[in-house]
Specification:
single chain, Jelly Rolls, five-stranded antiparallel β-sheet, four-stranded antiparallel β-sheet
């Protein structure tokens, strides 16, 4: 639990991230075109959770692994603490059928922007994802408090 009293809750967003069985890094920030309520990632805050909504999937029963990083290379991990990331089976929604799905990862960790990290960008955080097979396209939402 943080000792800071948060004054705002929000999320940062990435639209149409291409996800395969190779680890890929995606910048998550404000995207007011595709998600009008999204914000730049705060320089100081608490990362609450990550929502990954697959708008397309090539197969059912796939697993998604994810971790957050400070840098666009995906080298300076923030969560869940190891470069292998957290893994979940992609769940199918009620009406989407086999070609869409989602995962929600709880994070709950404090974050402070560090300008000394190579390829870090104020206002952004990086989601590093992979599937255990197949391909997908995902919208990524990182929820935070600041």
């Amino acid at each position: 639990m943080s000792i800071h009293s948060w004054s705002m809750a929000g999320y940062s967003y990435k639209n149409n991230a291409s996800v395969t069985n190779a680890l890929s890094v995606h910048e998550v920030t404000a995207d007011t075109t595709n998600s009008p309520e999204s914000f730049r990632f705060p320089a100081r805050g608490n990362i609450q959770s990550i929502e990954v909504y697959f708008t397309s999937l090539s197969d059912t029963g796939l697993e998604c692994s994810i971790f957050l990083a400070r840098d666009s290379d995906g080298d300076v991990g923030i969560s869940p603490g190891t470069p292998t990331g957290a893994t979940q089976v992609v769940q199918q929604g009620v009406s989407g059928g086999a070609t869409v799905g989602f995962c929600v990862f709880e994070i709950n960790t404090d974050y402070h922007f560090d300008s000394g990290v190579t390829n870090a960008k104020d206002g952004s955080i990086y989601a590093c994802l992979r599937l255990n097979g197949g391909t997908g396209t995902a919208d990524i939402r990182v929820n935070w408090r600041a």
